[in-house]
Amino acid sequence: DAGVIQSPRHEVTEMGQEVTLRCKPISGHNSLFWYRQTMMRGLELLIYFNNNVPIDDSGMPEDRFSAKMPNASFSTLKIQPSEPRDSAVYFCASNLGPGELFFGEGSRLTVL
Amino acid sequence: GENVEQHPSTLSVQEGDSAVIKCTYSDSASNYFPWYKQELGKGPQLIIDIRSNVGEKKDQRIAVTLNKTAKHFSLHITETQPEDSAVYFCARRFDDYKLSFGAGTTVTVRA
User: Touching check for B9 and chain A: CB below 8 Å?
Assistant: First the structure.
């Protein structure tokens, strides 16, 4: 099993640029989560999809953030325009029903 | 509320000694309490979990205890080894799918 696959692993960009993070969940999993990890706030849930439908986006910081899941094997998290305070590690995770949550290795974003 | 309080924030132990991390919560509706281990540059990985109808669960050198009345749960690592050095997160599930994570404990095992 390849696990949850995220890309890019590292992204350095300048303030104002668009950032797109990508995720491929584990095959067969029906739930997908995007988390953000920072020293100050720890692990925060940004958005939750079930069967490709966004169920809870209450954790999305503001309108600059958007997420899509066009099919069961792909999701994107987009930040436009990016700001230095968006610098963090973004994790994608997936599971099947209430089962174990599997995390990807994360995308480290640095906005200069 | 949704928060989980985790203590201590850092823990240094001698190899072979035990490590204990404690978490408390306030929402009595929580029924699932996982523990995650995060190594440098990697995503969190589930190491053990416990459900609310169980008081204790063990897996080799790792054990978790749950006191639902007092609303706290603990992770116990016995006979610690250098590879146990990592950041450990407790969590609780609420609203059927959301996990609320503790702030993490950085464990360092001294050789």
Answer: no
| Residue of A21, A34, A43, A46 to mutate, interface with B, max B Cβ within 10 Å | A43
CB contact under 8 A, A45 and B46: no
Written in H, E and C, the secondary structure of chain B is CCCEEEECCEEEEECCCCEEEEEEECCCCCCEEEEEEECCCCCCEEEEEEECCCCEEEECCEEEEEECCCCEEEEEECCCCHHHCEEEEEEEEECCCEEEECCCEEEEEEC
Cross-chain residue pair A100–B98, CB shorter than 8 Å: no
Q: Averaged over B51-72, what is the pLDDT?
A: 92
pLDDT at residue B30 is higher than 90: no
Residue B78 has pLDDT above 60, yes or no: yes
Alpha-carbon distance of B105 to B111, in angstroms, equals 19
Three-state secondary structure call for residue A68: strand
How many CB atoms sit inside 10 A of residue A2's CB? 7
| Per-residue pLDDT at B1 exceeds 60 | no
- Looking at residue A36, the DSSP 8-state letter turns out to be E
How much is the pLDDT for B2? 64
Closest CB to A42: pick one of B32, B43, B104: B104
| A101 to B103: CB separation less than 8 angstroms, yes or no | no
